[in-house]
């Protein structure tokens, strides 16, 4: 059993007063696992550039796509689907990349480990993640472009209700290996955040395990997102084993939670997850989220959104707020509120990353960091 969070069970008011002191005396306010960390969050993920376009339900059906899912495709399938899609927009994505971009937007200190190729999309991805202050220096795949290992891309079709359906060609992202895991950066990060998506590419799974071991060796916390219900169906036993042995913090949406425990009973499954890890945060779309820590259970409302344009990145931005909040020793309610706020910003426009500074947005809503 790993060590508990040092601020467990403290009241929100206390966390607020700690926050007020944060600028004056950072180290005293932080949980033990975040002391002397250079980064709040370091994420390991599939480095992907998204192509987003509107579509209708008939388009998804005609292409055999399951609404709301992420499906892996090869390069030819990706090219064929792209030809059939409406005019769209390109934006840097990658689930964990989106999360650390959100952490950076909140004014947090973040790092990213993921593989891009030496091509235009790789330059776009690298530029965008560094532009929000995220430390990113994973070696580029030198000879991938044109050989089936160009920078990964995700074709995202968005229905009028804002729901996103994703088809990902991993390309260079598939070449992430243990050699890319910078144990120094991970040991210097309060939380290492891992994508469940990394269970698909075999070499990345080893990198995943290495990153978790490096984090624990340095006294840091390991967080994982379950990513997608079909990923959970594919790797259920392996994911469960990883969670039980190596994860301190788990993020999941409702469908992923149900897939993990093979049940439709939300309350039972969520409570069970809450018992086997230190912190669990389970999202329920517009119905908000539920967070668990020790015996504590907190429901957090979603922020109302006038018009949901594109839900791509909702879970990723929610994770940004929650992870940054936990690394700063906030209460579950406060961390969850930061997550809800970040998610509400991203679903009101196209693309998976914030378009306004989340730090200012949080301040406008009375949430200080
Ligand atoms: N329609 C919505 N209105 C307001 N907030 C939403 C809406 N959909 C999602 N969110 C916010 O995004 C979070 C994550 O959404 P969810 O759909 O559960 O995750 P994922 O994107 O991983 O499937 C929710 O907890 C909520 O805060
Ligand atoms: O990583 C992928 O395969 C897809 C990402 O590029 C995409 O931006 C994404 O994961 C969106 O996040 P979500 O809607 O929060 O799941």
TrEMBL record:
Q: Which CDD domains match?
A: adenosine_kinase (cd01168)
What SUPFAM superfamilies does the entry give? Ribokinase-like (SSF53613)
Family statement: Belongs to the carbohydrate kinase PfkB family.
Supply the InterPro entries for this chain. Carb_kinase_PfkB-like, Carboh/pur_kinase_PfkB_CS, PfkB_dom, Ribokinase-like
Q: What is its EC number?
A: 2.7.1.92
Protein name per its UniProtKB record = 5-dehydro-2-deoxygluconokinase
The record's keywords, sorted A to Z, are: Kinase, Transferase
The encoding gene is iolC
Q: Where is the Carbohydrate kinase PfkB domain?
A: 87-353
> Which is an annotated Pfam family here?
PfkB
Extract one GO molecular function annotation from the record: 5-dehydro-2-deoxygluconokinase activity
């Amino acid at each position: 059993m790993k060590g508990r969070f040092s601020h467990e069970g403290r009241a929100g008011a206390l966390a607020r007063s700690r926050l007020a002191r944060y600028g004056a005396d950072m180290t005293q306010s932080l949980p033990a696992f975040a002391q002397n960390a250079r980064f709040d969050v370091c994420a390991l993920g599939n480095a992907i550039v998204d192509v987003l376009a509107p579509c209708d339900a008939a388009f998804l059906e005609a292409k055999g796509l399951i609404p709301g899912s992420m499906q892996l495709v090869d390069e030819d399938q990706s090219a064929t689907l792209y030809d059939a899609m409406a005019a769209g927009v390109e934006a840097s994505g990658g689930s964990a990349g989106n999360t650390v971009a959100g952490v950076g937007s909140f004014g947090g200190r973040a790092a990213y480990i993921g593989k891009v190729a030496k091509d235009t999309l790789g330059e776009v991805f690298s530029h965008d993640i560094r532009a929000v202050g995220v430390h990113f220096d994973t070696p580029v795949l030198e000879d991938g472009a044109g050989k089936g290992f160009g920078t990964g891309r995700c074709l995202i079709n968005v229905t009028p209700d804002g729901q996103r359906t994703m088809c990902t060609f991993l390309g260079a992202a598939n070449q992430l290996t243990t050699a890319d895991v910078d144990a120094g950066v991970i040991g210097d990060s309060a939380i290492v955040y891992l994508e469940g998506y990394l269970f698909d590419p075999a070499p990345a799974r080893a990198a995943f395990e290495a990153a978790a071991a490096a984090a624990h060796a340095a006294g840091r916390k390991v967080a994982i997102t379950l990513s997608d219900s079909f990923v959970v169906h594919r790797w259920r036993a392996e994911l469960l084993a990883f969670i039980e042995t190596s994860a301190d913090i788990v993020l999941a949406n409702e469908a992923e939670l149900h897939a993990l425990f093979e049940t439709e009973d939300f309350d039972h499954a969520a409570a069970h997850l809450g018992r086997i890890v230190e912190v669990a945060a389970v999202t329920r779309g517009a119905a908000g989220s539920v967070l668990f820590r020790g015996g504590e259970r907190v429901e957090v409302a979603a922020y109302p959104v006038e018009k949901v344009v594109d839900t791509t990145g909702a879970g990723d931005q929610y994770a940004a707020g929650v992870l940054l909040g936990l690394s700063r020793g906030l209460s579950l309610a406060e961390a969850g509120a930061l997550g809800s706020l970040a998610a509400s910003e991203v679903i009101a426009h196209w693309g998976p990353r914030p378009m306004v500074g989340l730090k200012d947005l949080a301040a406008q809503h009375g949430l200080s960091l």
